[in-house]
Each structure stands twice: as structure tokens, then as C-alpha cells.
Automatic annotation (TrEMBL):
InterPro entries: ABC-Tungstate_binding, PBP_domain. SUPFAM superfamilies: Periplasmic binding protein-like II. Residues 1-28 form the signal peptide. It comes from the Bacteria. It comes from Geomonas propionica. Residues 28-256 form the PBP domain. This is Substrate-binding domain-containing protein. Keywords: Signal. Pfam families: PBP_like_2 (PF12849).
């Protein structure tokens, strides 16, 4: 019994060492997990399927990608539920930054939005010069329009285009909201033979996998530019976010190697890239 009492301090020390080692290991594992909240277009286009494995191999981080609309991604950032954001809703992003939820917003890339419609083009908008004129024609013809209705960057752009056209589509029989991401909304529009606004990258990627029967009706207008930024969630507001990982991801997205990958992504399959690299450019050059 005396011997057991003599060894008790040793047992306690071993127990404490084991507990501390376990906590340290758990903390280290947590610090290697990175939560990325991003728009559905970066996922649906296949770009992140190429970039994330490279980032994980280079840095040792494990990325959990949550693909939602840009609005929902920023809501996650506001609650400290994500470490880093990759989004494409510039006005909402500026408010996110002004409210102190994000730091180090960096320009990453752009592609463009396009207005799509069924091959028979019941509203007769094919080749229309502006989205505003196309929307007016769609409204006049009572032709079905499919909206994501999910507070995403695409939805924000769509609302701005309707406003510029002087149209309030809410409550109109020809206007339907899916509440879904870009890929799923494209599938709904294909099934119902409706019109919609989409980003070119997702449309081209999905149309190649399964012909959607939707064709490009309006494109090339400066207002249809679709611009992406990476934003680190502010650690001053949410101390538990993985700021080191967020910074590593942001730096990776604007690095020369990643920008080169972006510049060629999709070129072989579609004849032109799905995104265009913008790191280091002045925002004014893109009309921001």
C-alpha cells in the first residue's frame, strides 16, 4: 500500500501529460481544418475541384467547402461560421466589410452573366443588345422567368437588372423563384423551358455534361460582368476562426500559379476559359 501511495504522484503526472497531449493534438487538428463558404458557381463549374486539392497538398490544411449563394456565405461569415469566403456580390461585400465582418478583401477573377432561354425563344429576345430590353420583352410576352431567389450574387445581379428595366416581377405569374443554386436552377429552367440569368462558367460546364436545351440570348453587356473576391472573416470579431488558414487560402487564390490555372481552366473543353484572373488589378479597371 505504501508503495502505491509513493507512485501516486507518477500516475497523476502521466494522466495530466496524456490529457494535455490529447488536447494539444485536438487543437492542432482543428487548426488544420478550414471552412470555405463560397458561391455555387465556383463549385458547379468544377473550378474548386481543381484548386482545393492543390491548396491542401501545398499547405496541409483540410478544406470543408460549403457551397451556397454569396448572401448566405456572408451570413455565415457574420456569425463566425466560416473562416474564409469566395463570393461574387460586390455591393453586399462592401457592406460586409464596412460592418467589420471581413478583412483583406482581394480581387480574384471574373467571368460574366448571360441571359439564357429555350431554343424556340417565345419572347423573341435573341441578340437583344441589353438585358433591360430583354427583360421588358419577357415581361410583355408573359414568358416564364426562373429566378434563384436565394439572395446569391446572381440573384442580386438579377434584381438590379429588373430594377434598371423598371420592372417589379414579384407576384407576376410569369416569374417563379426556385430557391436553389445555379446548377439546380439551370436544370429547372431546362425542364420548364424558361428564361433565366446564369453565370457563363456554370452554364457551359453543365451544358456539356447534359445538353440543357437552353441557348444564350443576351451577352457581352458591361453590366453583366461577374466579379469574384476572397475575404477573410475578421478574427477580431470571431477569435475562434482559423485566421492563419484563411490568410493562406486568400494568398493561394491570388498567387501567380493559381491565377495561371484559372486563366486556362475550361479552355480545352470549351475553347475559352470559364474565368479570367484579376489578382493585382485595380478595381476601377473592372468598373468597380
Amino acid at each position: 500500500m505504501t508503495r502505491i501511495f509513493r507512485m501516486l504522484p507518477l500516475f497523476v503526472a502521466l494522466f495530466l501529460f496524456s490529457a494535455v497531449a490529447s488536447v494539444s493534438t485536438s487543437w492542432a487538428a482543428e487548426q488544420k481544418n478550414l471552412i470555405l463558404a463560397t458561391t455555387t458557381s465556383t463549385q458547379d463549374s468544377g473550378l474548386l475541384d481543381v484548386l482545393i486539392p492543390i491548396f491542401e497538398k501545398q499547405t496541409g490544411y483540410f478544406v470543408k467547402t460549403i457551397s451556397v449563394g454569396s448572401g448566405q456565405a456572408m451570413k455565415m461569415g457574420e456569425k463566425g461560421e466560416a473562416d474564409v469566403l469566395l463570393v461574387h456580390s460586390p455591393d453586399a461585400e462592401k457592406k460586409f466589410m464596412a460592418d467589420g465582418f471581413g478583412v483583406n478583401r482581394k480581387l480574384v477573377m471574373h467571368n460574366d452573366f448571360i441571359v439564357l432561354g429555350p431554343a424556340n425563344d417565345t419572347a423573341k429576345i435573341r441578340g437583344t443588345k441589353t438585358a433591360a430590353d430583354a427583360l421588358k420583352a419577357i415581361a410583355k410576352a408573359n414568358a416564364l422567368w426562373l429566378s434563384r431567389g436565394d439572395n446569391s450574387g446572381t440573384h442580386a445581379k438579377e434584381k438590379g437588372l429588373f430594377k434598371a428595366a423598371g420592372i417589379n416581377p414579384e407576384g407576376q405569374k410569369w416569374f417563379q423563384q426556385t430557391g436553389l443554386g445555379m446548377g439546380e436552377t439551370l436544370n429547372v429552367a431546362a425542364e420548364k423551358k424558361g428564361y433565366l440569368l446564369a453565370d457563363r462558367g456554370t452554364y457551359l460546364a453543365l451544358n456539356k455534361k447534359a445538353h440543357l436545351g437552353l441557348e444564350i440570348m443576351v451577352q457581352g453587356e458591361p453590366k453583366l460582368l461577374n466579379i469574384y473576391h476572397v475575404i477573410e472573416v475578421n478574427p477580431a470579431k470571431w477569435p475562434k476562426v482559423n485566421n492563419a488558414g484563411a490568410k493562406a487560402f486568400a494568398d493561394f487564390m491570388v498567387s501567380k500559379k493559381t491565377q495561371e490555372i484559372i486563366s486556362t481552366f475550361g479552355k480545352k473543353e470549351f475553347g475559352s476559359p470559364l474565368f479570367f484572373p484579376d489578382a493585382g488589378k485595380k478595381p476601377e479597371s473592372l468598373g468597380l
